[in-house]
Amino acid sequence: MPAPRKYPQELRERSVRLVREAMSQETSLSMNAAVIRVGHRVGVNSDTLRGWVKQARIDAGEVAGVTSVDAATIKALEREVRELKRANEILLAASSFFARELDPRLPF
User: Fold this and answer.
1) What residues contact 29, with CB distance under 8 A and at least 6 apart?
2) Could you give the C-alpha distances from 45 to 4, 35, 41, 48, 106, in angstroms and in order?
3) Phi-psi region at 43: left, alpha or beta (left = phi > 0; alpha = psi -120 to 50)
4) Are residues 68 and 55 in contact, defined by beta-carbon separation less than 8 angstroms?
5) How crowded is residue 41: how many other Cβ atoms within 10 Å of its Cβ?
6) pLDDT (tens digit, 0 to 9) for every residue of the chain, 108 residues total?
7) From residue 17, how far is each of 34, 69, 78, 80, 95 by CA, in Å?
8) InterPro entries, from UniProt (predicted)?
9) Between the chain's N and C termini, which has fewer beta carbons within 10 Å?
10) Neighbouring residues of 74: CB distance < 8 A, sequence distance ≥ 6
11) What DSSP character marks residue 5?
12) What share of the chain is helix, strand, coil (3-state, %, to 5)?
């Protein structure tokens, strides 16, 4: 079970929006400077906010990367593969067990 989120989604969205607005209003302002400025105002660690902004840019298609939706899909598929491999191992062991029960001469 994932750890509870420290920041509510509304705060995340508002903080990212504030960083984007700050960068659009002051074209000379770098992303790092905007993140530090907004982070202090809203009470969010600047490194955390920087990650949110980068992920928002990826999700919006502005930069290349794995979107949040794709990451969730990949995670679900990896979980399913693990479960299927485990089920396959159990079935293989069971079939070997029952084969020995039927014919004890088999080398399994």
Assistant:
1) 22, 23, 37
2) 17, 9, 10, 5, 64
3) left
4) yes
5) 11
6) 666 668 899 999 999 999 999 999 998 999 999 999 999 999 999 999 999 999 999 999 999 999 999 999 999 999 999 999 999 999 999 988 887 777 666 665
7) 11, 20, 32, 35, 58
8) Homeodomain-like_sf, Transposase_8, WH-like_DNA-bd_sf
9) N
10) 66
11) P
12) 70, 0, 30
How far apart CA 83 and CA 75 sit, in angstroms, is 13
Distant-in-sequence, close-in-space partners of 7: CB < 8 Å, separation ≥ 6: 44, 48
* 76's tokens: 């679900």
Token pair belonging to 31: 């992303």
Helices and strands (H, E) in the chain, number of each type: 4, 0
Domain boundaries, the chain: 1-65, 66-107
Fold observed for domain 1-65: Arc Repressor Mutant, subunit A (1.10.10)
24: its two tokens: 């659009």
